[in-house]
Amino acid sequence: MEVNLTYFLKIFVLTKGCTLLEEQIKRLQEENKLKDIKIENMNLTLNKFRKMIFGPGRERTPENFSVYESDQLSFFCDEEEEKHTLEEIQEAVKEITVKPHKRKINKAGIREDKLKDFDFEIEEYDVDAEEKCDICSSDLVKVGRKLVRQRVEYIPAKLAVVSVYQNTYKCTSCGNKDSENTNDHFVKAAVPRPLLNHSFVSASLASQIIYQKYFMGMPLNRQEKFWYDLGLALPRGTMASWCNKFTEYYLKPLRDLMHKEILAENELVLVDETRIQCNKEKGRAPSTNSFMWVLHSGENEEKRGVIFKYSPSRNSEVAKSMLENYKGIFVTDGYSGYNAVPEALHAECWAHFRRKLLDSIPLGENKRPIKGTAAEEGLKYVKRLFEIEEELSNMPDDERLENRNKFSRPIYEEILSWHEKTSQKIITNEKLKEALTYIKNQHVELGQFLNDGRIPLTTNLVERSIRPFAVHRRAWLFADTPAGAVCNAVMYSLVESAGINNLNIFKYIEYLLTELPQLDNLNDENQLKQYLPWSDSLPAFVRSSVSEVLKVNSGLLVNK
After folding, report:
1. What does pTM read for this prediction?
2. Which residues fall within 8 angstroms of residue 194, CB to CB, at 6 or more apart?
3. What pLDDT, on the 0 to 100 scale, is given for residue 155?
4. Counting Cβ atoms within 10 Å, is residue 251 exposed (0-12), middle (13-18) or buried (19+)?
5. What is d(CA 493, CA 507) in angstroms, rounded to the nearest whole number?
6. What is the distance between the terminal CA atoms of the chain, rounded to a whole angstrom?
7. pLDDT band of 179, cuts 50, 70, 90
């Protein structure tokens, strides 16, 4: 039998070609799969940044997503999509139920309470002196007066120059022939020390500059125009130099004492950090991130304060210095640098884990979270933890701990089981991987709230104190020098601490800059203690708090 080599050669070539084609198809499929994974992760990242820029400030779980928030009508949607969206909105509207409520009526005397601290002026209107009775043309005589309305007038600020003179007195006896002292004797009146030598700055002027920048968020370049409009040429460089000197001479020792007392007296603190750019940090490029470290006392502590400290570094040594010799409980995010802190008990924030889960939930074609994903399952457990914590918020610490172990601990165990089960699967979602890594590395610290009723579930308290700094940073952008960065840290410490202690921030700063220059030794802690924001020695006018004014305005002021 004659063998056809050409035939077999053709079969071999075709077989080999098919094999190569199959391998190529398989390789292309794998590449496409990897590209799909990459696209999915890129979409997750894109959605995260979209939310940061355009989304609501609050984190919302998928169950709380509203069509009004996540599915706004597009200007570019086609007619069918628009119809579908409108139907969803109408359906959502049908399902909304409003709890019955009564309209709150302002109590009598609320207006008087709002206005009681202001100067009162009278504006009175009379009929014309020559006016007669329009019926019989007789003379008119005044028989009464009626209050028609009250209004609040805004009187623009004005500046005044105060010239300080020192009077000198001469003894009438000294220097006379029959006097025991034959030399003339003079007595000069005591004059308070100036805030800064050879400067026209006053405590009130300085306090307004500090108040506008560190509470209102007005950078010095805008303040320059503000003061010019009032008739005072005050360059931004001069104001910056003043603030640096106030910090160095008077306020930094007070901030440092605040920090020391909080660590010594507080059983619980919260710590976080945020970036700041310092242009002239030695050995570093201007664009390099430096950091503002922030420590907040526990919500129920007697000595409540916020400590800002500047550092060019974010390493663990700075974390240790922020909590030096501290032996209480401190709560942080998942940053590993805090693991170097000795002795103190370390707890961590559940809001950061929740945020990672939210970021890892993929969105469908309708831009809604896809149901049934592993991330959504984990998020449901975390959401339940927060719901339980909300129910326990008004309980004493021991009672809260008891209920946490009864209701929250099973949820915590479910989260650990979910993590173990999910980690065994092949995961292509990079954001979900980050969330799983977070719970793997931090599960002990995350579980500390089950051992002590004082430990909060989140670090929201310290993040709320950071928020004004972060918002203001968008306006002033950077600190030009390390001295300016330290000044920022000290000023925000005093302003935020005054706020949480219900002090009038402007009056408190003015009081400090009036009294501290008169002290002989600013390193004397016993002298400085009376100026701390929680001190009982602060005068009453400093305690006229903004928070009480806000309560009055909302009709919620309670008589003390």
Report:
1. 0.78
2. 517
3. 83
4. buried
5. 16
6. 117
7. confident
| 427 or 298: which leads in pLDDT | 298
For residue 497, give Cα distances in angstroms to 266, 304, 429, 494, 500: 15, 7, 42, 5, 5
Whole-number Å distance between alpha carbons of 62 and 194:
60
Q: What average pLDDT does this structure show over 529-538?
A: 96
Left if phi > 0, otherwise alpha if psi is -120 to 50, otherwise beta: which for 502? left
With 0-12 CB in 10 A as exposed, 13-18 as middle and 19+ as buried, what is 377?
middle
Residue reference for tokens 């034959």: 182
Amino acid at 177: K
- Between strands 268-277 and 168-170, the pairing is unpaired
Q: What number of other Cβ atoms are within 10 A of residue 91's Cβ?
A: 10
Stated as kind and residue range, the H or E segment containing 555 is none
Q: Show the tokens assigned to 262.
A: 């909080």
What is the distance between the alpha carbons of residues 345 and 327, in angstroms, rounded to a whole number? 7
- The CA distance from 485 to 280, in Å, is 10
Decide: 428 and 37 in contact? Cβ < 8 Å: yes
Number of other CB atoms surrounding residue 383 within 10 Å: 18
Of 317, 295, 313, 339, residue with least CA distance to 465: 295
The amino acid present at 136, given as its one-letter code, is C
| Contact between 70 and 386 (Cβ < 8 Å) | no
Structure tokens at 490: 């000290």
Counting beta carbons within 10 angstroms of the beta carbon of residue 169, is it exposed (0 to 12), middle (13 to 18) or buried (19 or more)?
exposed
- For 439-493, how does the pLDDT look when each residue is reduced to its tens digit (9 = 90+)? 999 999 999 999 999 999 999 999 999 999 999 999 999 999 999 999 999 999 9
DSSP secondary structure letter of residue 386 = H
Helix axis angle for 482-500 and 236-246, nearest 10°, is: 70
Q: How confident is the model at residue 68 (pLDDT cuts 50, 70, 90)?
A: very low
125 pLDDT more than 90: no
* Per-state percent for the chain, helix, strand, coil, to nearest 5: 50, 10, 40
Beta-ladder partners of 272? 294
**In this structure, are residues 328 and 314 in contact, taking their beta carbons and an 8 Å threshold?**
no
Residue corresponding to tokens 């925000």: 492
CA distance 94 to 275: 46
β-strands 168-170, 186-188: how paired?
antiparallel
Nearest to 377 by CA among 442, 425, 446, 448: 425
The separation between CA 75 and the C-alpha centre of its own chain, rounded to angstroms, equals: 35
The Cβ of residue 63 has, within 10 Å, a number of other Cβ atoms equal to 10
Q: Is 223 left (phi over 0), alpha (psi -120 to 50) or beta?
A: alpha
Please name which of 310, 203, 308 lies closest in space to residue 262, comparing C-alpha atoms. Answer: 308
Would you state the structure tokens that stand for residue 116, as one six-digit string? 């009681």
Q: Hey, which residues does 297 pair with through a beta bridge?
A: 269
